[in-house]
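S.,

Sequence below, as promised.
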Amino acid sequence: MSSWRHQILLLAAVAIVGVVFLFPAIPQHESYHNFADQRPFLGIQNFLNVLSNVFFLIIGWMGVRFVRASTADEGSPFSDPVDRWAYLVFFCAVAATAVGSAYYHLRPDDDRLVWDRLPMAIGFMALLAAIICERTTPKNGLPYLVTLPIWGIVSVAYWHFTQQRGEGDLRPYIIVQFGSLVAILLMMALFPPRFTRGTDLLISLTIYAGAKTFEETDKLIFRLGGVVSGHTLKHLAAAISTYWILRMLRLRRSATNAA
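The prediction came back faster than expected:
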């Protein structure tokens, strides 16, 4: 890894952590679980928020099949087995998110929210490890493939432990979710691509930003027509964001060969 690029990334990581921890502990308020659309159907509470998770399962399964059927040799969409494994972990986490999120939305509370956030945290970290691997060298990516998902798990476990003690603190999880996206953008800006279709990753991140906007406007969107809530649309947009990453992998080629 180039020294100056390494230094920029290190300074950015320190800055992100420093800025987040300038704030006091951030608890998870109970109002978070009060989603706009709580309508039951077929005996299933919060039906649309539960059902919309099926898209994560479908896309996660499609991604796992694609990665398993691919190799890491010349002409493949992966630069190295480490890169391939990182995407496999990512898509497995996406599929697991379907289960965890559906379980949570059946009866939203803090204990169930753990199983929603755990696979998401692992997925964010696995995607970051994949980008590190393919933008630098595989030997740099391997330690991150091991340590980053563990950090994702720790961030959720820490939040839950502090929440149970009445001192909930989301700061490490915020770093995992949003810090990883900033790190990916920095990696893309600082390091030359080894594959084509880099724009697809930017599109995916943009769609995910839209998903977070839907989440924040959950009740407002539901009040507009009473048909669908912002949180349900968040699930759909986040699933599309994930699909765009799968699309990128299917279509990309070595940047060297493309040139």
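The radius of gyration is 19 Å.

Coffee later?
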